[in-house]
Design goal:
This protein is of the alpha+beta class and 185 residues long. The chain folds into 2 domains: 90 residues, no CATH class; 65 residues, no CATH class. The protein contains 3 helices and 8 strands; from the N terminus they run H-E-E-E-E-H-E-H-E-E-E. Strands 1-2-3-4 form a 4-stranded antiparallel beta sheet. A 4-stranded antiparallel beta sheet has the order 5-6-7-8, covered by helices on one side. Strand 7 and strand 8 form a beta hairpin. The chain is elongated, with a radius of gyration of 17 Å.
Length: 185
């Protein structure tokens, strides 16, 4: 059973495996080792992690999958899903956006994807209140009323990081059951 974390949303930083838009670079030795390998003809690797998504009482999972004929033209899909495998929320980007070279071996790809898996959810109550009449403090996709209902419920928020875009923290709408962006940044 998942346990609510003691860390707040500003303390959740998922390591980025490749070059970032702001110019901060990755681990040089890791990239050099991947570049020295021979080309891979298939880019099919999957990793997953059990995590609270819809409730603190039961674990669902985050799955990250690399697919494609080769890693140069392949893509990475990040999916929040139920224990039964039903997709709840999906992000997808080209493998190159994750800093995965075409020559990466399946083990190197697996290692890279594993660094992107969030290890725990964040308590929604740790996020700032949304003052009536102001803009969302987190650039949420929810209405103010739904955002505040999620905060009051102390629901799980799962943060996902694509190396080439802002972190997206996702929570479940208590009325519709849909997962949407609760916070960006």
């Amino acid at each position: 059973m998942p346990v609510p974390p003691t860390t707040g949303p500003n303390e959740v930083v998922i390591p980025t495996p490749g070059p970032l838009v702001n110019g901060v670079g990755p681990r040089a030795e890791s990239d050099a080792a991947m570049a020295a390998a021979s080309p891979v003809t298939q880019c099919d690797v999957k990793v997953n992690q059990a995590i609270a998504i819809r409730s603190w009482k039961a674990a669902d999972r985050v799955t990250i999958m690399a697919t494609g004929n080769d890693c140069a033209s392949g893509s990475i899909r990040v999916t929040l899903e139920t224990n039964e495998g039903r997709a709840l929320y999906t992000l997808q980007a080209p493998a190159r956006d994750f800093g995965i070279p075409a020559t990466a071996s399946p083990d190197q790809i697996r290692d890279r994807l594993t660094t992107l898996l969030p290890t725990n959810a964040v308590k929604s109550s740790a996020y700032p209140a949304w003052v009536e009449g102001s803009e969302s403090p987190t650039r949420s996709e929810f209405t103010r009323e739904t955002y505040e209902a999620i905060r009051q419920a102390d629901a799980p928020v799962v943060c996902l990081k694509l190396p080439t875009s802002a972190q997206r923290c996702v929570a479940q709408d208590p009325k519709s059951g849909q997962l949407r962006v609760f916070a960006r940044g």
